[in-house]
Each structure stands twice: as structure tokens, then as C-alpha cells.
């Protein structure tokens, strides 16, 4: 409605301008015609001249008098002022229209998937709301959160030119949050944590009053196109598992994880699904033997957990240990809802020295810590967003702080879910016992430095 109104307003202004120009043109045109008639009269008989001139003068349009022009200009000016006053009243009344669900152009956002393909549009006012953080102590491990803050901030500093995805403002851009705001938020929090830890005191970032005074607190309501009734964010959990494995294929450990070589001539690996790889194309006798390097041989269950979690710690039968993280995939998207063994996406791994999160290549990935890291939609929500979750535990309100420093195929796009890095576990049973204490849904807030 606002766009249509503006178009009408511009049309009215243009019409008034044309009207004023027309008055001026008629006046000048009459003067010109009178001058032409006067010149013709000098070559004809005086009597004929007078008759002809009088006849033509009677047939010409009458020039408006100066008083008429002034009155017309006043009418146009008054009409324009009235129209402008109406527009102002319209804008004021419709800036936050009560009882209406108008999608304003300035808050409309086009959601994309991992291939940068448009999926749907959403009004960000339906997703984000400015609020105050509840007055409950915020929980987190100070040293671990500081580490992930520093590593994420360094990623912005070192790889912004190589990884344009992190320069996307995403949906929060429609709320006035820029990438510069994100880095300033991290800089401030890093400084506060360093100072508080150095002085051996509980950090001010655990004080909700300090947070409310220094940060914009933006409530994030879930936007799930397949479940419009969902209001709170779904909080899933992931982990790093320790698995036994072998450096050589055995009857027990017969499922490989591979590493791509650095000197690749082409992306041959994008032609093959997970099922192709597991059929043995890279093993001795396979058509692509020698093109990749086997890192470890696991059970099939071990492989699926490594693919799902992104990182795996392998205790080898020879007594050694290795940490492996996903590096590059075959370019086939993850299909939400399809069981793991049927997924066609396959990840190639690389040996690393820590648990790794987001990064455009393996050597650039952010080192992360359990308990303070979320995996989320880095294209539409954004890397480095500081999150506070609110939920009830044992009948008491609990606030938990972390940062989006990881991602995954299930989060592109995803405006209704975060994945919490719960820890390092020996098996699924230990993992299940731990996450049973955590919420499946929670209120979520995003902090942005004022």
C-alpha cells in the first residue's frame, strides 16, 4: 500500500509541474503568435490588416491574466501540501500497523540454500524482536568461550577476502545488524573476558544487567515453513565420538574414510555418491584406486557418526590416536529426513589437531570447544552471532551463552534450529545420558554490541 501511495504522490507532483509548465507555455505561445501577426501586417493594406488582425485575435485562446496564474499556482500548492500531509499521516499510521500483517519491503528477506538458490521470502519482523534479557545469571565456561570468540574473530580477520559468505549480512541485515557490528561485538566481549579472567573474577558477561546495558538483545523466534506453530528454536545436539579403528582394512574395520590429495587435477570426486565410494572404487582393483589416501578404516556405524558429527577421534589398533575432520564433500546436498545410510552426500576427511567448526577450507577451519559452540545457518543467520538460550532446568530458569562457529547441511537453510556441541564421548549411551538433561526447544536471543 505504501508503494502504491508513493506512486500516486509522485504522479500528482508530476501533473502539477506539467500544469504550471502548460500555463507558461500558453503565455509564451500567445506572445509569439502576436509578434508573427504584427510582422505580417506590415506587407498588407492597413484596412485589411486591421480586419484580419482583429479576426485572428478573436480566434486565439485568451492568455490567462497574472492574477489567474497566481490563483492557479496557489491552488496547486495548496493541493500538494494537503496531499503531503495525508501521506505523512498515512506513513505514521502504517509504520507499525496494528492488527495488520503487512510485509514491509525494508524487512523482507530472501532465504537461500547452500547453492545460493532462492528458497522463500520472510518478513524479519516475524522472526526478530528487540527485548531485554531475563535477569538470570548467564552460564558458560569462560576460558572455552574466550577461545572460540578469539578463533572466530581471527577467521573474519584472515579469510574475509577468500570467503565472501561470511560478509553476508543475512536476515539480520534487515534489522540493521552489519558484519561490522558482529566483529565489534566479538572485540568487546573478548576484551571483557580477558580483563575479567586476568583479575580472577566472574566475568561481567554473566550479568544480565551488564548485557542489557551494553548490547542489543534480539529475540529470535523460530520460522519453520513446515511447522508454522513452532515458536521456540529446536536445539539438537552433536558430539565428537571416540571410535576404534585400523590403519588397514580388516574384517571388522572395513569401512574407510579418505583424504583428497592436494594436487587434484579436477574434481573427479564430485561424480561419486557415498554408495559409489563404499563399493570400493578407491580400493585396490577399483577404477579410481590411488587417487585418494585412506586415513582410517572404521565400522559402518563409525563412518556414519563421523559423517554426521563432522569430527571423529580414532583409537587405532596399533595404540596411536588421530583426530579427523570433514574437509570437502562431493557436492551432493544433504536431504533432510532421509536416513543416514541412504544419503548420497559423502565427505572426505583430513587429519587435524583440534575439533574443527566452520571454514571454507580445511586449513582455515575454526577450532571450537564443546559447551560454547553452536552449528547454525551461516548463510542466512551468519557466522559469529552470539547466542543466549533460555530454558527451564529442574524448575529454574537457565541462560546459556555460545556462538555460531560451525554449520552443516541440515542448516542451509534453517531459521528454526541450532545444533549444540555437547562434548566428546566414548559412545552413544554416554552421549544420550548427557543430552537428556538439555532442552529440545528453547527461547533464543542474539546479542549485538550497542
TrEMBL record:
<dbReference type="InterPro" id="IPR036908">
    <property type="entry name" value="RlpA-like_sf"/>
</dbReference>
<protein>
    <recommendedName>
        <fullName>POLO box domain-containing protein</fullName>
    </recommendedName>
</protein>
Amino acid at each position: 500500500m505504501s508503494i502504491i501511495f508513493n506512486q500516486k504522490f509522485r504522479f500528482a507532483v508530476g501533473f502539477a509541474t506539467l500544469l504550471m509548465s502548460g500555463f507558461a507555455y500558453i503565455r509564451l505561445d500567445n506572445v509569439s503568435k502576436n509578434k508573427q501577426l504584427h510582422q505580417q501586417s506590415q506587407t498588407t493594406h492597413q484596412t485589411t490588416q486591421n480586419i484580419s488582425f482583429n479576426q485572428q485575435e478573436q480566434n486565439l485562446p485568451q492568455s490567462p491574466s497574472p492574477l489567474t496564474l497566481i490563483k492557479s499556482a496557489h491552488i496547486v500548492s495548496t493541493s500538494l501540501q494537503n496531499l503531503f500531509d495525508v501521506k505523512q499521516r498515512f506513513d505514521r499510521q502504517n509504520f507499525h500497523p496494528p492488527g495488520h500483517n503487512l510485509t514491509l519491503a525494508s524487512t523482507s528477506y530472501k532465504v537461500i540454500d547452500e547453492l545460493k538458490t532462492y528458497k522463500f521470502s520472510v518478513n524479519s519482523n516475524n522472526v526478530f524482536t528487540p527485548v531485554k534479557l531475563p535477569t538470570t545469571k548467564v552460564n558458560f565456561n569462560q576460558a572455552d568461550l574466550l577461545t572460540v570468540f578469539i578463533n572466530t574473530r581471527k577467521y573474519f580477520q584472515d579469510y574475509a577476502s577468500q570467503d565472501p559468505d561470511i560478509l553476508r549480512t543475512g536476515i539480520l541485515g534487515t534489522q540493521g545488524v552489519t558484519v561490522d557490528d558482529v566483529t565489534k561485538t566479538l572485540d568487546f566481549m573478548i576484551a571483557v573476558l580477558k580483563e575479567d579472567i586476568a583479575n580472577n573474577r566472574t566475568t561481567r558477561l554473566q550479568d544480565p544487567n551488564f548485557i542489557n546495558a551494553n548490547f542489543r538483545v534480539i529475540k529470535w523466534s523460530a520460522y519453520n515453513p513446515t511447522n508454522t506453530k513452532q515458536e521456540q528454536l529446536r536445539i539438537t545436539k552433536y558430539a565428537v565420538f571416540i571410535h576404534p579403528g585400523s590403519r588397514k582394512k580388516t574384517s571388522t574395520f572395513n569401512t574407510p574414510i579418505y583424504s583428497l590429495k592436494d594436487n587434484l587435477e579436477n574434481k573427479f570426486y564430485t561424480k561419486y555418491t557415498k554408495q559409489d565410494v563404499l563399493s570400493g572404487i578407491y580400493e585396490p582393483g577399483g577404477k579410481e584406486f590411488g587417487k585418494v589416501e585412506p586415513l582410517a578404516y572404521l565400522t559402518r556405524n563409525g563412518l556414519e557418526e563421523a559423517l554426521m558429527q563432522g569430527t571423529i577421534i580414532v583409537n587405532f589398533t596399533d595404540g596411536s590416536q588421530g583426530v579427523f575432520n570433514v574437509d570437502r564433500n562431493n557436492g551432493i546436498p544433504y536431504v533432510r529426513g532421509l536416513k543416514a545410510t541412504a544419503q548420497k552426500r559423502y565427505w572426505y576427511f583430513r587429519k587435524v589437531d583440534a575439533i574443527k567448526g566452520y571454514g571454507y577450507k580445511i586449513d582455515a577451519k575454526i577450532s571450537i570447544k564443546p559447551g560454547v559452540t553452536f552449528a547454525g545457518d551461516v548463510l542466512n543467520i551468519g557466522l559469529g552471532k552470539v547466542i543466549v538460550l533460555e530454558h527451564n532446568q529442574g524448575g529454574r530458569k537457565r541462560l546459556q551463552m555460545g556462538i555460531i562457529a560451525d554449520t552443516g547441511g541440515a542448516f542451509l537453510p534453517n531459521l528454526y534450529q541450532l545444533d549444540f556441541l555437547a562434548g566428546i564421548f566414548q559412545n552413544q549411551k554416554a552421549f544420550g545420558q548427557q543430552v537428556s538433561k538439555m532442552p529440545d526447544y528453547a527461547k533464543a536471543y542474539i546479542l549485538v554490541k550497542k
